[in-house]
Design a protein that fits this description.
mainly beta, two-stranded antiparallel sheet, globular
Length: about 80
């Protein structure tokens, strides 16, 4: 299995809206990080779709190595 591109070695703080659907970039190639812009089409990756449970700031993974996608679990600290 291929590894995703590391978009950045820190999380992206993102304000999400309750009930809204989001597409987190899993491949790391998107120009609209941390969200998908379709650049995964030539990879084996697909975006992770999620619906925000509440309006809040989420820390979305930028290194694409988290064990809790789409949120950051601190894995970037060991890269």
């Amino acid at each position: 299995m291929a590894e995703a591109v590391i978009a950045q070695k820190s999380p992206f703080p993102v304000q999400v809206e309750a009930g809204r659907k989001y597409a987190w970039c899993a491949c790391g190639k998107s120009a609209t990080q941390p969200f998908c812009d379709g650049k995964h089409k030539d990879t084996e990756f697909t975006p992770l779709m999620f619906i925000a449970e509440k309006t809040e700031t989420l820390w979305l993974c930028g290194c694409k190595r988290t064990h809790t996608p789409p949120t950051c679990d601190g894995t970037h600290a060991s890269l």
